[in-house]
């Protein structure tokens, strides 16, 4: 399946979570077996050229795509979790959300110093979560210079923000607007 064919599998939900927002819903892509397989395959092809030794994904939908890409490439998967979800000592970072703050955490013992890691997530908007995850993984010793997404909302500037931090951002699909 071609990348452009995936566009038809992404639903747009108007006025969610509030009026004026066009929400890009990937659950319809997840429910389509051939589409999901194709999205994972396209992401894996791009990740394989990045020389990564591991794939990292942010909770929650980054786990779906990131773990599948890691499995397809025979690489380990590093979960970047929300606060309090890991049963071991962690390092963490607080980051800004539209309505407050959140925290991401990782187990630093899973990241050998200098290990190349590619970030994978379903969507990039402002880039806050991806930037926080990259900073956290770098703090743990990873080399993070590539991030892959199924969807980019380029008008919100997340990919640009990643590039400004030395991280090449690549997405399968782009949707203008928010």
Walk me through the topology:
Layout (H helix, E strand, L loop, with lengths): L2 H4 L4 E4 L7 E4 L1 H4 L2 H16 L5 E5 L2 H13 L2 E7 L8 E7 L2 E7 L9 E9 L3 H12 L3 E10 L5 H7 L3 E7 L4
Parallel strand pairs: 3-4, 3-7, 7-8, 8-9
Antiparallel strand pairs: 1-2, 4-6, 5-6
Write structural notes for this entry:
- The chain has 178 residues and is of the alpha/beta class.
- The chain has a single domain, classed as 3-Layer(aba) Sandwich (Rossmann fold), CATH 3.40.50.2020.
- 31% of the residues lie in helices and 34% in strands.
- It is built from six helices and nine strands.
- It has helices at 3-6, 27-30, 33-48, 61-73, 128-139, 158-164; strands spanning 11-14, 22-25, 54-58, 76-82, 91-97, 100-106, 116-124, 143-152, 168-174.
- The strands form two sheets. A seven-stranded mixed beta sheet has the order 5-6-4-3-7-8-9, sandwiched between helices.
- α3 (33-48) packs across α4.
- The model has no long low-confidence stretch (mean pLDDT 95).
């Amino acid at each position: 399946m071609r990348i452009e064919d995936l566009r038809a599998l992404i639903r747009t939900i108007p006025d969610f979570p509030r009026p004026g927002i066009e929400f890009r819903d990937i659950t319809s892509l997840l429910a389509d077996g051939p589409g999901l397989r194709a999205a994972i395959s396209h992401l894996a092809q791009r990740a394989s050229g990045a020389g990564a030794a591991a794939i990292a994904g942010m909770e929650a939908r980054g786990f779906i795509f990131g773990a599948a890409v890691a499995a397809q490439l025979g690489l380990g998967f590093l979960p970047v979790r929300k606060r309090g979800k890991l049963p071991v000592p962690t390092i963490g970072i607080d980051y800004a959300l539209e309505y407050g703050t959140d925290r991401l955490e990782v187990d630093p013992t899973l990241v050998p110093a200098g290990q190349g890691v590619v970030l994978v997530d379903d969507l990039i908007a402002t880039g806050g979560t991806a930037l926080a995850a990259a900073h956290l993984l770098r703090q743990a010793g990873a080399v993070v210079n590539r991030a892959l997404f199924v969807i980019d909302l380029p008008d919100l500037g997340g990919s640009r923000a990643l590039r400004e931090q030395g991280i090449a951002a690549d997405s399968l699909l782009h949707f203008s607007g928010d």
